[in-house]
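Deliverable D4.2, example record:
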Amino acid sequence: MPDPEFKSCVVIGAGPAGMTAALYLNRFYREVTVLDAGNSRARWIPQTHNCPGFPDGLSGDELLKRLRTQSVQYGTKVTQATATQLENVDGGFRVTDTRGDQFYGRTVLLATGINDVLPKQPWVEEAINCRAMRLCAICDGFEASDDDLAVFGSLRTAFEHAKFMRTYSATVTLVQSDNEQVDAQLHQSAKDWGIALMKKPLDWLFDGMRCGFIDASGKRRLFDTIYPVLGSRSQASLAIVLGASVDKENKLVVNADQMTSIDGLYAIGDVVSALSQISVAVGHAAVAATAIHNVLPRNLR
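Output generated by the structure prediction step:
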């Protein structure tokens, strides 16, 4: 059996972070393979207006398309594959996908992101697409300015998000996903912040344009925009199995070069313990790609 061919780097994940890193690495004349599972979090974005350089905004799908086109122009090889195993081997790392195919890299860059926990409703994607439901207040809270807003989540977590949303609207309702009782202190704090409180509703509503709830009394209440705050699941399992350090949310802890606690294993974007933003992910990518280039053997012209 012939010896495996080691690429300079195997990038796992083809969202903004992964494709930017691949672009940089190829422009350093490094051989890169990108594994794309097709589930970038950016695909949920109907229209982003805080991505630098796009004053008219663009959709997440369009952003992903442009990033891939640009990176492929410089030689990036993108393979549709979902990585299921990551191992240390002599010379670097071996990545195995769901089909049993194997990819070898002297380094590996994880850009696997997170999965948002969303309400279990069949119309969630439609609601996100029409902006009745939004996932990131930092990304698009400005677009929801002065809307009749709801924040849905557990009492304590949702209250912190509801306070943040008062930056954008005077009409904010915290809708509980749990049954925790509102104590006198929190009730007064909500009043001071101008936040209305709603106990755990009986059911969800969606009329094709707006989401809402049937409250505990059976009354229907629709909102212009709802932000679900139900948490997320970090996609860091490949690194965790190798013993990489994570924070309390299972996000990877990295050094200034974006390297994990495993030598040669780097991580960028939402899978890292940091602010989950496209601009942050792109910055991570530039740092990590440059660091990887600098630790690999020289490739002089």
